[in-house]
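Entry 12.
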Amino acid sequence: MEKPGAQERPWRPHRWLLRGESIIASTGLTFAAILLAVMSGTTYWTLQVQRSALESARADEIRSLGIVLAETTGVMLRVGELSTVRRLLVETARDYDLEACRLTLPDGQVVAAADPGQITLLALPPTWSSDPVGAASAHSSDGVLIFSQPLSIPGRGTARLDLTANVHIPWGRVWEAQSGVGIIGALAMVALLLAYRRMRGRLRSLGVIREVLLAMGGSKASEQELALRGEAGPEVRAWNQLIAEKARLQKRLLSARVEEVVESRPRANRQLQEMCDAMRRGVILVDGTLRATYANGAAAVYLRSEPNKIIGQALSDTSLDQKVLEAVQDAISGLARSWKSVEVDNRDQETSGVLRFSVRPLRREDTSAAMIVIEDITQQRVADESRSAFVTQVAHELRAPLTNIRLSAETAIEDGEEHPQVRANLLNIINQEAKRLERVVSDMLSVAEMEAGTLDLRKDDVRLDALFEDLNADYGRQAQLKNITLEFNVPPKLPVIQADRDKLALVVHNLLNNAIKYTKAGGRVVVNVDIDHDTLMVDVIDNGMGIASDDIKRIFEKFYRATDAREAGITGSGLGLALARQIVNLHGGEIEVESKVNKGSTFSVRLPIATKAA
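Predicted 3D structure (tokens):
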């Protein structure tokens, strides 16, 4: 059946996409991502190539310089021109931007260096050791080039020339090349955008058709839902013709199937059997000898057997309860002439559940027969028990504030005239208990709305600072009476947001009430409030008794109350957290809990907010 307003559904998957554009949006984004990746890779590669080339050129320069300098200094040392050698090293280091340039003898004495402070031997001896000083070597590390060249001075000895230089990268030239790569990339992006716009114009009709198919979600739709109106293009016209032809074909097929069903009764019987097998309720037909003549699939599942094994089997040989067998016997013998129901509770056994067996007598050509209908009513029984527990808890919740109101009113009437301060305190108690009653009734009404599916939001301007001030005032006295430290950490300035104030307050009320209720005297309850971008964050932290890990999974279920022995004597309806989660979900937010037994609990609420425009 066509849903009301189906034709008015919005087609756009995103507000920034035109109708029909989604079919190529992903392709355009993919090409753009590939282009950006290629340009990034090209930039990185050119940087590495330029850096490697500069390092290689510098290394060749230093190597050539070292060879020439080694030959020159060797000649000068042979004739004893030490001062000339030292001056040459200083000028070479300055001209070629060397970090270090020195001449070292085999014993480690430095006879000449660009930095005079490194010289350890002032005068050149006539001769010195001719021990090997190593082979020529050149290597680089972290942008520093080190070159060593051995020297052999005839008639005097051996020495080693060491050169150290930094690799300076001319970033001006580097960025000049990278700007060219960037310009090419920008031109490529412009070309891609133009191609995308041209492709969008050509494929828009196909995109509209695709969106219609995705919107249907694979469900069977009518011709009116699939037909496109207000769209132009040959593809749309061909699509509408195809949908019309499909509708005509479906009508012909439906007519053919009707004729086939009418002409083929055996096939109809098979379909009826298939329908019975598809039922969630189990069905068993029993003859006058208390043997099963038919059993569908659901009945076999309930009896933990198979249909072909149940058919022809005596009921006494099945797993049916004795009360069910007696009800079948009464139906067949004529003692029972209407429906008789028997409930069997197996929740304490391995196969848990509550089954209802409804037995009815059948009369056909004076042959006694009966029908057994099996229904799983486990959830119904659990719900009934939960509601019964809820009524009991609500009665306790209502009795305490009503009793306090009555006693406070009586005391105020009797002693109020003589003790104005006592009367003021009693009126305050009456006010607090009335608010408590209001919250209980509000919970009950909200549960009724949840059950009916009508729980909704009435959004308006909400002043968060005033909201949390009211909460602090409501629960300050309650915490004080229980000797609990209540602390509100609220920013000095909170925005005015769009939300349902009453329901938002109900969420924090329920969390605060639970925190104080399950925290022992001398404990501490902290409410942290903060705004992170467009998210309202509220954390209610206590150091109370905590929640067991098995109960954490179910505390947000309606009517659920933990079975922890520590909670004996603590009343509650089991609705607060269920309502809190429902309200938070309606606001589009999330609620989470972290808890450790005997350590405390932290309930965290995260709500996306829409602030009021200034």
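Annotation: The chain has five domains: 13-219, 223-262, 270-376, 381-444, 460-608. The first helix runs from residue 22 to 78.
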